[in-house]
Structure formats: C-alpha cells, structure tokens
C-alpha cells in the first residue's frame, strides 16, 4: 500500500499543554496522504500504517493541506454549534494516544467554562473533562 509513496515534510505533534512530543511523517501519493509514521523526539518509531486502507479511489484521501490549517468546514460547524465561546488558536495534538492525532481547538467562555474539540480528517468531536460528565 505504501510502496509508491514518498515521505512528506515532518509535522510536529503536541500534547494538550502544547509541548512538542512527536513527529508525524506523511507518506504521499502526489499531494494525498496515503499513510503516516509517528516518531518520538528521539526518532524512535511509535506507529505507522496506511490511512483508510479500504479506499480504492485515491482522490478520496486527505491532502497535505490538512496539516497546514483546520478545515474551514469544520470550523464553520463548530462556530455554529458553540456560539458565544471564544476560540483559542488550534494546534496539532492527540487524544490520549498519538495514534488519535487531530487539531485541538479549545473553546472558552467568560464564565470559565471550557471545551476541547478534536478535529480530524473525518470530522470533529468534543472531549469532555471526566469531572464534567453528567450521570
């Protein structure tokens, strides 16, 4: 699956406190991301593999522009869903494990209420603090 790919530019991946923890190395077919390797800061391989192994049409793969900025469609949806929140600058992070990499966008209100939104290539979701869960 990755035999016809070339390595792309390394992308820094940060923890929730914005400390650099890993490198993402995309494997490219032209400008499309076919797979990834995740390295720690010493260069040790943490994980690697193909993205969307069932995709037969390469045009459906994400482009490298995902690593440059949060997709505007996702930002529009989040703005609509979370009106009244202030957006902090997003950064590439991960949800518990580097294999769950995504853009992390923190939302804040003057009431000190905060939300964490993870935005991946396939969509976005809110990660709630366990102390804020209902029930």
How much β-strand is present in the residues? 35-45%
Shape: globular
The helix fraction, in percent, is under 10%
Order of helices and strands: EEEEEHEEEEE
Task: Kindly summarize this structure in a few lines.
With 135 residues, this protein is mainly β. Helices cover 7% and strands 42% of the residues.
What report would you give on this structure?
The protein is mainly beta and 135 residues long. Helices cover 7% and strands 42% of the residues. The protein has 1 helix and 10 strands; from the N terminus they run βββββαβββββ. Strands 1, 2, 3, 4 and 5 form a 5-stranded antiparallel sheet that branches. The protein is globular. The protein starts with 5 loop residues before the first strand and ends in an 8-residue tail after the last strand. The model is unreliable at 131-135 (pLDDT under 50).
